[in-house]
Specification:
Elements lengths: L1 H51 L4 E8 L3 E7 L2 E8 L2 E8 L4 E4 L7 E10 L3 E6 L2
Parallel strand pairs: 5-7
Antiparallel strand pairs: 1-6, 2-3, 3-4, 6-7
Length: 130
């Protein structure tokens, strides 16, 4: 009986390790897709505010995944740097609008309020809202 139990353990442990590594990989993929959706939303909304003209503004809510290390906005690009599966990756969203702003600093996962303001009809300022 002890021999049979040891054979069962020998087969169960590798299977459990395979299942755990597979689930971690899927979580990493989901985080990347969520970050990609967040930057795409910010970039799309910046374009909308830019087209609305001077003094147009909007506060949007995006959902950040775990692992967001930093963000930046410049030259028509919205970038979220994140740590996924032990690698640092940049999720990039582009817009035709002239954008600037500050999304710097590590953020906790969850809903983030983003303020977009068209300044004098020349550029859109993107920052975290209060």
């Amino acid at each position: 009986m002890l021999v049979m139990a040891s054979f069962a353990v020998i087969f169960i442990i590798p299977l459990a390790l395979v299942f755990l590594s597979s689930s971690n990989s899927e979580l990493g993929k989901a985080s990347l897709l969520q970050a990609k959706a967040s930057v795409r939303t910010i970039a799309d909304e910046a374009g909308e505010i830019y087209l609305q003209g001077a003094n147009a503004s909007k506060v949007i809510i995006v959902n950040y995944p775990d692992g967001v290390l930093n963000g930046s906005v410049d030259n028509g690009l919205v970038v979220l740097r994140m740590n996924a599966d032990g690698r640092q990756l940049d999720m990039v969203g582009s817009t035709f609008a002239n954008v600037t702003g500050n999304l710097a600093g590590k953020r906790t996962a969850g809903l983030q309020r983003i303020s977009l303001v068209n300044v004098d009809g020349t550029y859109v300022n993107i920052t975290y809202a209060q």
